[in-house]
Fold these 2 entries.
Entry 1:
Amino acid sequence: MAVTPKPVDLTTDLGFLKLRNPVLTASGTFGYGLEFEPYLDLDKLGGIVVKGLYDKAREGNPPPRLVETPSGLINAIGLQGVGVESFAAKILPKLRQLKTAVIVNVCGADDDEYAAVVEFLDKQEGIAAYELNISCPNVKKEGACPALSPRTTFDLVKRIKAASRRPLITKLSPNVTSIVEIAQAAEEAGTDAVALINTVLAMAIDLETRRPKLGNVYGGLSGPAIKPIALRMVHQVASRLKVPVIGMGGIMTGADALEFLVAGAAAVEVGTASFVDPDAAVRIVDEMERWCAAHGVAAVRDVVGTLKTA
Amino acid sequence: MTIDRNARLREVQSWGDHFRFVIDAPAIGRDARPGQFVMVKVSEGSAPLLRRPLGIHDADATGIELFFRVAGRGTEILSRKRAGERLDIIGPLGRGFTLAPAAKGRTAYLAGGGRGIAPLYFLARALTAAGAKPVIFYGGRGLADIPLRDRLEKAGFEVQCSTDDGSFGFAGFVTALVEKELARVKPAVVYACGPDPMMKALAAITAKHGLPAEFSLESIMGCGIGACWGCVHRIRNEGGDGWVKICEEGPVFPGERILWP
Ligand SMILES: Cc1cc2nc3c(=O)[nH]c(=O)nc-3n(C[C@H](O)[C@H](O)[C@H](O)COP(=O)(O)OP(=O)(O)OC[C@H]3O[C@@H](n4cnc5c(N)ncnc54)[C@H](O)[C@@H]3O)c2cc1C
Ligand SMILES: Cc1cc2nc3c(=O)[nH]c(=O)nc-3n(C[C@H](O)[C@H](O)[C@H](O)COP(=O)(O)O)c2cc1C
Ligand code: FES
């Protein structure tokens, strides 16, 4: 006989932002959100993190921009996309109609551009928070990104936090020696949360031609292949920081997402999975709910940070 | 755009490493237009991870047909599916061919290189229904690369084949065959799908003859729905040249807008 399971409380409180559930879509893998309207009910998401925005529209890298590798995808898109003004004029008015939280992933080719993007967006309504993408190559520093050192991370986060009226989530890169040091620098600089991981620097080679398979030579690896790395980093960071952690990297199922919560993430972002199944994020919410119901977990937040190491 | 997770593979036909699938997918079939494509899931797990783009070979109210050649792991897995199995398909996607240039009673040339023949069957049917006269040019390296020739002829289309090795039909590239025929009959429009070098050569030929032409481009696709910006091609726009997502604005583009590498 089928037993009707008790409803599971999926609400997630990040302190500065309340979400209907802990599942957001990861930046760069969900377009500007509207592309997905034919495939799922956007209001069922905990939140949408839109594609990274620079001040001006960006050209992006020459193709090939994608290569599939075992259980993963390497991308070198080069952050092609519209600039902030076009986003605010054409896309934001539609996103504002949604009940789900809209978070803007902020990019910059140098610290001034990050500041300019935030300054402009601060004047717009309908944005719940900023996600600071500190992995953008800096044009003035031979392409090094702020995420690479605690110092540059601290300086950028401090500046943007002071300049902006909205909560700030700092998105961390896994391509560093100590993820904890960088996360702590972001926390000291006043970030309201950290999100990790961005893609893992990678490459693929065509043996026959001995050429790189990507136009840009290097790219960022995402998908199930990076999940174990992401889980480890989320656990390390969540164990040391006071601010909430948003976890991501290779989440394909509700079980994957719950593992990130166990490791200490308060919420998760779904990335590459949305390419395979445009409705993946909503399916993942449903799967999390079912798992909780089946395991007698009344609220999904009760799973957060429950890793047993003894 | 529909996600059909329960599309039943009704029939499989094969010629060596080429396969034709007849699939029950009414919602996709009803909306499909010639030149559009679908994204097909090839595995349940993450090996391979991404869906594969395939052109719509034919469509009606009951579903769609696909025609593909095994190119690697994904298409190889797909080729092992049997009638009765279920497929997970998203479509129809992208913008297809414009039929308008081939008005009633006028001739249209359709040039397919290898697996590029796939969307041209559906196009030829639509052109015929609109009263135009499609002539199909079908080329491959050898006889084994042009398995659809009987099917095209049985459907009543005028078909001219070419093989690079001369094993069947015109000996040489399909582009040379088209150029030869252009001297005889000038069509109202040329449509093409095939490898980049073939389409690039054909773009030069049609431009030289001042003929309108449309080409279906290929790219590795991450999503097929405009979300990843992975599938770009250099395209001429009013505002200047740029990298354009072919899954969204294409895969079919007018010849004069395509900037070939
Ligand atoms: C809009 C569109 C429509 C297509 N329609 C058809 C069709 O009707 N019939 C057909 O046989 N093929 C079609 N293709 C090509 C087909 O998608 C690829 O052959 C397939 O994705 C290869 O997957 P695989 O796993 O078998 O090979 P892989 O192991 O992934 O790749 C094998 C080789 O194919 C190349 N490749 C991979 N993906 C693509 C791709 N999307 N486009 C072109 N080359 C690729 C790789 O670089 C590699 O050289 C189409 C492609 C596009 C973009
Ligand atoms: C095609 C693509 C584009 C991306 N663009 C961005 C971006 O603009 N900003 C950003 O912070 N992260 C970007 N990412 C990283 C993802 O948001 C995410 O951190 C990463 O892919 C790991 O999650 P996943 O394995 O679930 O995809 C991008 C990833 C992919 C695959
Ligand atoms: S395949 Fe993702 S944008 Fe075209």
Note: Residues B 37, 48, 52-55, 67-69, 71-75, 115, 118, 218-221, 251 surround flavin-adenine dinucleotide (ligand 1) (CB under 6 Å).
Entry 2:
Amino acid sequence: MPSFPLIAYSHVGKSFAGRGSSPVMAVDDVSLEVGQGEFLAVVGGSGSGKTTLLRLANRLIEADHGTITVEGEDVRGLDPVSLRRRIGYVFQSGALFPHIGVAGNIGLTPKLLGWTAAEIALRVNELLELVRLEPSYRDRLPHELSGGQRQRVGVARALAAKPHIVLMDEPFGALDPLTRDALRDDYRALHDRLALTTVMITHDMAEALLLADRIAVMQAGRLKALGTPAELSQSGDTYVANLLRTPRREAERLNALLPRDGAA
Amino acid sequence: MSLFSDARWGEALTHLSDYLGNHVRVSVTALALGLVVSLPLAIAARDRPLFRSVLLGVASVVQTVPGLALLALFYPLLLALASVTLAWFGIGFSAFGFLPAVLALALYSMLPVLRNTITGLNGVDGALTEAAKGVGMTPRQSLFTVELPLALPVIMAGIRTSAVWVIGTATLSTPIGQTSLGNYIFAGLQTQNWVFVLFGCLAAAVLALAVDQLLALIENGLRNRSRVRAALGGFGIVALIAATLVPNLARPSSSYIVGAKTFTEQYVLSALIAERLRAGGLSASSREGLGSNVIFDALAANDVDVYVDYSGTLWVNQFHHRETPPREQLLGELKTTLEKQNITLLGELGFENAYALVMPKKRAQALGIHSIADLASHAASLSIAGDYEFFSRPEWAAIKSAYGLAFRMQQTMQPDFMYAAVASGEADVIAGYTSDGLIAKYDLAVLADPSQAIPPYDAIVLLSPRRAHDEALQAALKPLLGRINIEDMRAANLRASGNDAAASPDAVARWLWDRIAKR
Ligand SMILES: Nc1ncnc2c1ncn2[C@@H]1O[C@H](COP(=O)(O)OP(=O)(O)OP(=O)(O)O)[C@@H](O)[C@H]1O
Ligand SMILES: [Mg+2]
């Protein structure tokens, strides 16, 4: 069990008015604690409520039921704007501002917090180095970057104001496998070095298993399972078991397809 | 003479800095005002569906009002407002010219700006507005740093549409007393000076294109985030405004303003008055093409110093009399009524421009018709044509009842076409104007009005309250009083309806002065 919960969901529910008559229960009675320094991965099928769960934490949307606390405080009692400024958020689509350069995108939250221009410039250089981008990229516009570079900028932007908490919504999707591997490892190293608390949504079970301390499995708005990879492998639930088996199944099929010494 | 060697191009050019300058000033001010009002409204309305539909609905309705009507409506509105503020706060303002034109045009400019701003803002990718929230922006910061910059190309497109509309519609502000490129068009249409019409249209089109291209440059600069291009476009706009302000500042402001309504005779007479003033060492500028209802109020408000009106017009339209006293009595009563408003009726010019029933001389002789009374027995087999307002005027009711007229058919026509229509037999009788030059040209007969059903329409010179005791002005105008007879005016009007350089109001005014000065 985590030491001190930095983020805690307690019986949280959120529904959206659906297209038809019945509302969609996007998040349904979820209770979950993320400890200080923990790396939690959230997995689950499309539409299972992962993004909704994340957005509830920094009040991009408001919960219908239950309570959410961040660093021990009920988020309903906090000013949402300052709450968001102290939580880093990497958006599912990247969502860099297309009319603002790389440096401007990264330095946004510090600027909103009133840092001086010199402090921001220093911090931007630091972050570019952290996410391994050449300093010459500072002045580029997002559309002048590759997909992977954009995602690095997205991560840098989330880290800019030195948050303790980082929420990441499929941050490493749409990348070539090598870049993806490198960025993943880089991020995990950062997480450890900066003592961050990270919640990362992913569709990739292997990624979740490799990076995370614990994994939360969502299905149809409900928290199906929560635990370390080892704990999850004990789960009797067929959905969870199936999910856990996918990386190994894939690996086995790949092994069968590729000659032992042929793969690089 | 070829079209381009016509001397009237040169004459048109002499007015360009005045007309263009005024046109730019009124359009730019209206556009700026429209933007200042529309942008905040659009921002406030974008996520309030009810407010949004009401706002866009109202703006759309405004758009369906013809430009000319919208401009004309603002004049009485402001006039009423001005009298209220004068009564309550002791502050009056001029309801004439610039102000109503700016307000009406600003209103006219709103729809494209509102619609494009709302569309642009609502079209911003939801993922980006959420990201703006996510990085910790307040709604205001999100608006200014993310939403507005991203919506800017769409907003600019709306502003461009608006600018072209406003510049085009500003030509219609001439009748409410705002000098504009429309002065060429209105004067040209009335005096059949197609060079002026063409010149005015071209100038307005070039101006609209130039402003559109400058705005396009700004838009392009913003879209491609090129400061240079945006700055260049901005500089162009500023330079344009500055250029139109310079000649205006240099102009003397204390000159006499001579007004003219929107028909040929008025252009000629105002040119004549202006020329007489200059001959008397006074400086004069003209405000031409003013609406018939606007010009009198403008005089009363000292926005116009002198113009020629017609006794019957004032009697019926301005003072709403139904009965028609004899000519001398009407003039006397009119003079006292005008004096109560501090307006001076300086005197009559010597001719009348009255409504009259007119038909071809030969036809009248053949039928033995000399007066309207003779017409009564033939009317049942004849058709009559009149201008847009004639058949609803009290004169027509008076004529019909006085002579017991019942025509086979009555139709309304553009005044310019009426004479040709009656000459060619398309209409049997027309309600024309006694001083019209076309009466002589088409050899028409003016039917006598023995019962005096038609009020007298003596051309009279009116002076504004502030010029009531202006000796120099009165001395300069005295030589015109009683000197212009109906033949003079018909001949002058006929010349002015020609289509060459000798037909310009200034040229005709000089010709007319030469003719009457000899006597
Ligand atoms: N703003 C909204 N309005 C209405 N319905 C919503 C809204 N946001 C999410 N939903 C619905 O809530 C459910 C959960 O959505 P959510 O985005 O949390 O899923 P997800 O697990 O992140 O899916 P994916 O893996 O595809 O990103 C879905 O059925 C979705 O359609
Ligand atoms: Mg999602």
Note: The interface with chain B takes residues 58, 60, 81-82, 84-85, 89, 91-93, 95-100, 108-109, 112-113, 141, 157, 161 of chain A (CB under 8 Å).
